[in-house]
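Sample intake sheet
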Amino acid sequence: MPASRARAGEGMPRPQIPTSAHLLVACVLVERAVLGGRLPPPPPSHVTALVVASCAMVVLAASSATVGDGLRLPVAGVILTLALSTSLAWALSGLLVRGMGLCEAELGRVAGSSCTLLVESDSVCGRGSHSCRASVKLPSGRSCRVWLRSSQRVWMGELLRCSTRWSPLDQDGFGASSRMQGVVGSLRIVSISSRSWQPGPLGRLRAWRSDRLEGLFAQPTDSAAWIAGVALGSPALARERGMGERLSRCGLSHLLAVSGSHLAIATSIACTLLLRLDMPLAPRLAASLSLGMALVLLCGAPPSAVRALLMSASASGSELLGRRGHALSSLCLVGLVMALLDPSLSGSLGFLLSLVSVAGLCLLSWPTSQALRRALGRLAPPWSMGRRRLPQPLSKLSSVTLDLASASLVAQVSTLPLCSSAFGTLSLVAPLSNLLAVVPFTLGLATGLPGLLLEGLLPWARLPLDVSRCCFELLSALVGALSALPLAAVGLPDWGGVEPLLWSGLVALALVRSCVRMEEDDHRGRHVS
C-alpha cells in the first residue's frame, strides 16, 4: 500500500469490533463488581505494584512479535491489554471504595455545620420535601457524594452551609444502587445558614440558569418541563409532573436526558450558519466545539453529554488532520478513559445506556437500514412504481425515514437488557414515536435555547420561546396519544441477575470475532503480497 494512503487511513483493514471495546467492557465489569461488593478491592500496599505491572503489560503487548513464518499473535496482545484494563479498573475502583468508607465514618462523627455542600442536581419535590444529589467537602479535605433532602428548593451549583442530620444507606436495593454510583449516605437539612454560588464564570452561568428555571417553574406546564429538560438539562419539573411513565411507554425518555443528539442539533445549526459566512474549517470546528462545551457546562456536564463532546472533539481532530474517523473506536476509548477516571460512572444507568446505544448504532445501524430497504422492496406490489424511481424529494424523505426507523430499532434492542432491569417495560411504539417526534423536538430545541438566551434583551425575544412552547405542546400531545394506546408497552422480566453473564458473553464474542478478523486480514495481506 502506498505511504500516502497509509497516512490518510484509506483502505486500512480494521476489525469490526476494536480492541478498545473489550477493554471498556472488562473495565465496567470489574468496577461494578468492586463497587457492588462482589470483588474485594486490592490491598493499599499493592496498588502501586499493580499499576507498575499493568504498565509492564503494555510494553509486552506492544512488543508481541512474531512466531514461525511471521504470523502475528493478536490474541496474546489483546489478552495482555485486557489484563492491563482490568488491573487499573480494580485498583482505581478499590481506591474509590476505601475513600467512600473513610468519608462515611467521618460523616458519622463530625457536625454537619462544619461541612460545605455543593449541589450537583436540581432538587425534585416529592412527599413533602425536595431531594437531589450533592457533594460534601469534609473538614479533613475529603469529598464524597450524598443524597440531600431539604424543605426548600435548591439549584445545581449552589454552595450551602447548613445544619444537617446524617443517615447511612440501608442494605436494600436502593442502597446498593446508590453505592454503585459513589453515594455514601443521606443528609437531611435542618436549617440553612448561607447560600452562595460557585466562584468564577461557572457560578455566574449556574446563577443565570437558575433564574431561567425559576421562570419556567413559575408556570408549570408540559412545554415548560420540556424546555427545562432539553435546553437547561433539568428533568426536575418533568418528574414533578409525572411525565416519566408516559415517556417510558412511548420510548422517548432519552429525549429529556441531554446527550449526543442534543449537541448534534445545536452544533449542526451553528455550523450551517458559519458555513454560509464562508468561515474556514478550523475556526468553524473550534466555534462548534466551544458551543458544545458551553451547552454541556450549562446542563451540569452529564456523563452522556461529556462523552458526546469528547467524541465530537475526536472527530473534529481527525477531520483537521485529514484522517479517517472511526466512531466505535472513539466511543470505546472515550468511555474507557471516563470510566477509569471516575469508576462510579460504571454504576450510572445513563452512562451505560449512552455507551450501549451508541455502540449498537455504530455496529448495526447501517446493516439494519439496508435490511429494511430490501424487505420493503420485496413487499412493494408490482403495479406500484415498476422500474421508475421516486422523485428526488420523496426518495430523500423515504431514505431519511428508513434511517431513523432503523436507528430507533437498533437503539431499543441494544439497550433492552439494561432497560428491562431499570424500567421493566418494552415500548412497542418506540420506532413510530421517535419518528414522529423528530420535527417538533428539533424545532423546539433549536428555538428554545436561543429564546432563553435572548429573553429580556430584545423586544422580539419572546417569539423563539413561544415557538418552542408550541412545538413541545405538540410533542406532549403526541406522547399522550401514543402512551394511551392499549399495547403501547408490555412488561418485561428483570434481567439484573444475568446482566454480568450477558456482558461476559459479549466480551467473549467480541474477542473471538475481532481476533479472527485480524488474522484473516493478516493472511489476506500476506497472500496478496
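Comment: DSSP finds 19 helices and ten strands in the chain. The first strand starts at residue 66 and ends at 67.
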